[in-house]
Design goal:
The chain is α+β, with helices and mostly antiparallel strands. Helix content is 37%, strand content 17%.
């Protein structure tokens, strides 16, 4: 919902202001900051919860502690019930997490459910910075001489600081050194795992088949999560990719909207006649949503390409291909809503990717381990693309499949049920659980990568070849990426060159991840 900048130690307010200005797009509704003796907190606000009263930084009762936050705390009402003795100053979900930490310490972050990056500071020098366990919301930091600085995006940092920037690890909290040594690095402690430890062991399935009760459990836990992710004081929509996952999200969200007497806005993008566009249209007609289509021309996609690489701060081809149409989609959606739900995470929970259905992952134990690994990597891949393409236009994307309760329930299902054996297709469990809620052809439609189904892949591949021929790149040495990072294809080389113009000092091995293939 926002962008944050925080600094602890020897503060340069002008530098902090520059950094905050560079992420104005993340929160165009308001700007706030507070400077203490050894800390500076800045906030760009996208007003979603407590629109009129939730301005940040938020202070405690004595103006001795402050917080800025990015994201949403979905159990903030439950936290308020626990803190019944506290008199809250706002209805903001960020204040709920803030007050909990003030009362119980940083360890209480384990009880916070949502997507968040939080920075707190006290007048006595104490403070805390934390990121949600999966890393749905971005956070980067640089530990420099005398100061530790944090920001929501790579492009917030000054060029001279880029070599020192790292991705702040999900599920961790950092506290500054309070001994008076401003060159000390402080303490970094894990407060939660991306995937709860207790769900990692493989559960046996002696009957080798699920029951209607199992399917009902899947429906219930996902439907409950989608309902909670529609928490908002502003309109909420759904990105419809034309695939199974977003169709399920839209089906539940449309029901919730109907219960409120509203019509759910949905948004789809694709070149004329593309598979994704046609499939999304069928889902929207079936559900009766207020549907919006973006039909880019090849020129539109070409125009958005360089911007997409800079916006997502990445050069992985799979991410770039999907980012280009997603940027166009977000630019249109923000004219109608401030929040959208997406289907991110379903493939990791239900083994939807084709690469996991090979001999290497043919046992339940191997498949479970790979699903856990892929979820732990999402913050530097799909979630990075998802966050940046939407927040570039002040639009918040939410991912109900990655709710902590959903993961705890669905990863305790036998991994054997997710293998493509006994004539099953990928994600058979999920398909059966929601059979009848969306059109039959969509429930049983095969998976396509978003950039492929939207028609963007072919257009972008042709652009890469055109640029390669124009510049004579086939005869030139490919650019060198230091620190052991190898470029894997002509397409990745092309995107890296664009990325390098904005982030020449950033070390990819400290800030980015990569898919298995380019």
């Amino acid at each position: 919902m926002c962008g944050i900048v925080a600094a602890y130690g020897v503060i340069d307010p002008e530098k902090c202001e520059r950094m905050l200005a560079r992420i104005h797009h993340r929160g165009p509704d308001d700007t706030g900051r507070v400077q203490l003796e050894n800390a500076w907190l800045g906030h760009q606000r996208l007003s979603i919860m407590d629109v009129s009263g939730g301005k940040q930084p938020i202070a405690d009762d004595t103006d001795s502690a402050y917080v800025v936050g990015n994201g949403e705390i979905y159990n903030h009402e439950d936290i308020r019930d626990v803190l019944s003795e506290v008199r809250f100053a706002t209805d903001s979900d960020t204040e709920s997490a803030f007050r909990l930490v003030l009362r119980d310490g940083a360890a209480a972050l384990h009880e916070v459910r949502g997507m968040f990056a939080l920075a707190m500071a006290h007048t006595d020098g104490r403070g805390a910075v934390a990121r949600d366990p999966i890393g749905i919301k971005p956070l980067y930091w640089a530990r420099l001489d005398g100061v530790t600085i944090f920001a929501s995006e790579l492009r917030a940092f000054d060029v001279e600081d880029q070599p020192f920037v790292e991705a702040f690890p999900p599920g961790h909290v950092w506290t500054p050194d309070t001994t008076g040594d401003l060159t000390a690095e402080g303490a970094l402690v894990r407060f939660a795992d991306a995937v709860p430890v207790e769900v990692r062991p493989v559960r046996n399935a002696p009957d080798k088949q699920w029951t209607e009760e199992d399917l009902g459990q899947i429906r219930d836990v996902l439907s409950d999560s989608i309902r909670r992710h529609m928490m908002s004081d502003v309109p909420v929509g759904v990105f419809l990719s034309g695939g199974l996952d977003s169709a399920i999200v839209a089906a539940v969200a449309a029901k919730v909207a109907d219960e409120k007497g509203e019509r759910l806005p949905t948004f789809a993008v694709g070149t004329e006649g593309s598979a994704d566009l046609l499939a999304a249209r069928a889902v929207a007609e079936f559900l009766g949503t207020d549907h919006h289509e973006i039909v880019p021309t090849p020129d539109d996609l070409e125009e958005a390409l360089d911007e997409a690489v800079t916006v997502i701060e990445h050069f992985d081809p799979a991410l770039v291909r999907s980012a280009v149409p997603n940027l166009l989609l977000a630019r249109e959606a923000v004219k109608h809503v401030k929040v959208v739900l997406t289907g991110e995470g379903a493939d990791e929970l239900f083994a939807g990717y084709e690469y996991v259905h090979v001999d290497e992952f043919s046992t339940p134990e191997a498949l479970q381990a790979e699903l856990v690994r892929s979820i732990e990597s999402l913050h530097e891949l799909n979630l990075q693309r998802c966050d940046r393409t939407t927040m570039n236009y002040g639009l918040e994307a939410r991912v109900p499949f990655l709710d902590a309760t959903v993961m705890r329930e669905l990863l305790t299902l036998p991994a054997e049920w997710k293998l493509k054996i006994h004539d099953r297709v990928e994600k058979q469990l999920l398909r059966e659980a929601f059979d009848g809620t969306v059109p039959y052809d969509i429930i049983w439609r095969g998976k396509e990568q978003f950039g492929d189904g939207s028609g963007a892949k072919d257009v972008l591949s042709a652009l890469v070849e055109k640029e390669k021929a124009k510049e004579g790149a086939q005869d030139a040495e490919p650019p060198t990426v230091e620190h052991g990072w190898a470029l894997r294809s002509d397409e990745e080389i092309a995107y890296y060159r664009t990325w390098h113009r904005s982030f020449s000092g950033v070390r990819p091995d400290r800030t980015l991840g990569a898919f298995a293939t380019a």
